[in-house]
């Protein structure tokens, strides 16, 4: 194998740049400041040039202050250029201040006219009749505000006192398209608008731990998504009360969640009232609940049943517990039936709890 470096080849000639000659500083006379309108040539000097060699004096050319280069002036628009050309040739220039109607563009383009909507095709065919034809050099309509201003007061809205004259809504008032609503009929709490559904918001607040509302909202979104992807409940579960068909419940997960909670929600609660029977014994008294209280009890039961599941994520545990309640299973139904049985057996204590003293005889 031949060596990579050959010692017998001729050495390449290298060009060395000599160091610049140091010229002693001389006192230079003051040079007058050139005029701002003088264009001085640029001197390109390399380091290899002789420092003692002086450049030749170049002639300066005065420049007018209004001078513009070839790229300094902006070209006119195509429509303005065409209007100037038509005006110089004696033709009818186009109206630059208005847009071009789509019908006129489609009349010139046959290929686009075939693919145009049926409404535009009908308007084009109606415009070809002699009765609807427009004179040459004019258009069927104008989009410029100048045309409305030139038309006089006929195109403007006339007002008499606070009523608009010549419009379809004369009773709306000055500057209004529709009449103002009667604020006196609105309730005082009309400005309190709910951002979320009341059931979704109540479940979200119950899911929240340690004040982390954003994490509870993420879990609520995942629960609703699981309800949407879950199959419809079986027809054998007659305990689920809803107005929608069972096959359409997964399509609306919010209504699905509302139906599950309202179905398992208890109607009453048991209150242990002391001091009536005497001897320190408490008497159970059934107390009816409002709608929000009933839903809260159902949510607490569902969350308690979800804690006993072995799934890792909270959203999966709650979703499976909700689906079990929709099928008629789960611990929430057992707690509801037990509570209603206790309320039925203690319904005789309702009158005693209201009067504050035990009564005599049998209560009907």
UniProtKB/TrEMBL annotation:
<feature type="domain" description="Small ribosomal subunit protein uS7">
    <location>
        <begin position="194"/>
        <end position="347"/>
    </location>
</feature>
<dbReference type="GO" id="GO:0005739">
    <property type="term" value="C:mitochondrion"/>
</dbReference>
<feature type="region of interest" description="Disordered">
    <location>
        <begin position="109"/>
        <end position="153"/>
    </location>
</feature>
<dbReference type="InterPro" id="IPR036823">
    <property type="entry name" value="Ribosomal_uS7_dom_sf"/>
</dbReference>
<keyword id="KW-0689">Ribosomal protein</keyword>
<protein>
    <recommendedName>
        <fullName>Small ribosomal subunit protein uS7m</fullName>
    </recommendedName>
</protein>
<feature type="compositionally biased region" description="Polar residues">
    <location>
        <begin position="122"/>
        <end position="146"/>
    </location>
</feature>
<dbReference type="GO" id="GO:0005840">
    <property type="term" value="C:ribosome"/>
</dbReference>
<keyword id="KW-0496">Mitochondrion</keyword>
<comment type="similarity">
    <text>Belongs to the universal ribosomal protein uS7 family.</text>
</comment>
<dbReference type="InterPro" id="IPR000235">
    <property type="entry name" value="Ribosomal_uS7"/>
</dbReference>
<keyword id="KW-0687">Ribonucleoprotein</keyword>
<dbReference type="InterPro" id="IPR023798">
    <property type="entry name" value="Ribosomal_uS7_dom"/>
</dbReference>
<comment type="function">
    <text>Component of the mitochondrial ribosome (mitoribosome), a dedicated translation machinery responsible for the synthesis of mitochondrial genome-encoded proteins, including at least some of the essential transmembrane subunits of the mitochondrial respiratory chain. The mitoribosomes are attached to the mitochondrial inner membrane and translation products are cotranslationally integrated into the membrane.</text>
</comment>
<dbReference type="GO" id="GO:0006412">
    <property type="term" value="P:translation"/>
</dbReference>
<dbReference type="GO" id="GO:1990904">
    <property type="term" value="C:ribonucleoprotein complex"/>
</dbReference>
<feature type="compositionally biased region" description="Basic and acidic residues">
    <location>
        <begin position="109"/>
        <end position="118"/>
    </location>
</feature>
<dbReference type="Pfam" id="PF00177">
    <property type="entry name" value="Ribosomal_S7"/>
</dbReference>
<feature type="region of interest" description="Disordered">
    <location>
        <begin position="43"/>
        <end position="74"/>
    </location>
</feature>
């Amino acid at each position: 194998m031949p060596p990579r470096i050959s010692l017998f080849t001729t050495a390449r000639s290298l060009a060395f740049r000599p160091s610049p000659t140091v010229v002693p500083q001389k006192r230079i006379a003051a040079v007058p400041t050139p005029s701002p309108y003088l264009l001085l040539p640029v001197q390109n000097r390399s380091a290899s040039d002789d420092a003692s060699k002086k450049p030749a004096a170049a002639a300066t050319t005065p420049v007018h202050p209004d001078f513009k280069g070839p790229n300094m002036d902006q070209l006119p628009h195509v429509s303005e250029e065409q209007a100037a050309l038509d005006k110089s040739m004696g033709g009818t220039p186009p109206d630059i201040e208005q847009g071009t109607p789509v019908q006129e563009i489609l009349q010139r383009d046959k290929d686009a006219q075939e693919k145009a909507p049926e409404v535009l095709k009908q308007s084009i065919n109606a415009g070809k009749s002699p009765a609807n034809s427009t004179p040459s050099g004019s258009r069927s309509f104008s989009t410029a505000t100048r045309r409305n201003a030139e038309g006089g007061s006929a195109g403007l809205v006339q007002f008499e006192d606070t009523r608009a004259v010549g419009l379809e809504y004369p009773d709306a008032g000055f500057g209004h398209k529709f009449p103002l609503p009667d604020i006196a009929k609105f309730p005082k709490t009309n400005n309190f608008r709910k951002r979320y559904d009341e059931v979704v918001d109540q479940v979200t607040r119950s899911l929240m731990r340690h004040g982390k509302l954003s994490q509870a909202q993420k879990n609520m979104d995942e629960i609703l998504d699981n309800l949407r992807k879950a199959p419809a409940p079986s027809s054998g579960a007659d305990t689920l009360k809803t107005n929608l068909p069972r096959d359409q419940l997964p399509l609306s997960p919010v209504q699905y969640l509302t139906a599950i909670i309202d179905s398992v929600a208890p109607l009453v609660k048991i209150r242990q009232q002391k001091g009536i029977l005497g001897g320190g014994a408490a008497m159970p008294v059934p107390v009816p609940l409002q709608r929000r209280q009933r839903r809260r009890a159902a949510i607490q039961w569902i969350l308690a049943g979800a804690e006993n599941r072995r799934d890792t994520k909270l959203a999966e545990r709650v979703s499976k517990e909700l689906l079990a309640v929709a099928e008629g299973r789960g611990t929430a139904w057992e707690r509801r039936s037990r509570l209603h049985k206790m309320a039925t057996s203690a319904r005789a204590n309702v009158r005693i709890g209201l009067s504050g003293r035990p009564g005599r005889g049998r209560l009907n």
